[in-house]
Amino acid sequence: MHYVFPPAAPTGIPVAGTEAVFPVRRVYCVGQNYALHAKEMGGDGRQPPFFFSKPADALIPGGGRIAYPPKTDNLQHEVELVVALSEGGADIPVEKALARVFGYAVGIDLTRRDLQASAKEKGRPWDMAKGFDQSGPIGAIVPAAMSGHPQKGRIWLSVNDAVKQDGDLAEMIWNVAEIIANLSTCVELAAGDLIFTGTPAGVSTVVRGDTLRCGVEGLGELTIALV
Ligand code: MN
Fold this sequence. Notes:
Blueprint: E1 12-14, E2 21-23, E3 27-31, H1 35-40, E4 50-54, E5 59-61, E6 64-66, E7 75-76, E8 79-85, H2 94-97, E9 101-108, E10 111-112, H3 113-122, H4 127-130, E11 136-138, E12 142-143, H5 144-147, E13 154-159, E14 162-168, H6 176-186, E15 194-196, E16 205-206, E17 211-216, E18 221-226
Parallel strand pairs: 3-15, 5-11, 6-18
Antiparallel strand pairs: 1-2, 3-4, 7-10, 7-16, 8-9, 8-15, 9-12, 13-14, 13-17, 17-18
This protein binds manganese (II) ion (MN).
């Protein structure tokens, strides 16, 4: 057997403190998982989790320079705790979920908010609002063996040094174990899957020339420049 052309290499994310690279399979994202952000998006703050996806090759490991995307006049940032799985399964019980976690990272769910608003209004898919090229800058993955499983801690993002998002992981409506358990009832999870776990309040519009810096306590920082 041979491929008609060489297949794309998997997206790899550096693992903090090692030379190893985490190979990405799928990228899932949770919508509206912090009450204040759900409210700023027009929700009521207490709904079952819902999910969407980004293509694995939309991730930009390490951040850096990111091209301002086409087809939008309202690009927004969503800083998120990202969970990286080293084991998967279907119908994973909540109490067994964290044992599947390899580690954690800080990521940004870049969103073309105008396309998302129009998709919501028309009942259309979110793919072009959420899954565009370079829509997922992500920092190094910190193994859970180093970080533990963070249940609380500051999650923040600044634009040109002005703090826009400043929340705490403890404000998540669905915690990491509950997210894994719920998602695994929808799809079978596997090693290499990432889950963006939602963003705290304070999302805002960014423009070319802006520098975004963000972090999650204990997981380091990530910086991107929109060019
Ligand atoms: Mn998000």
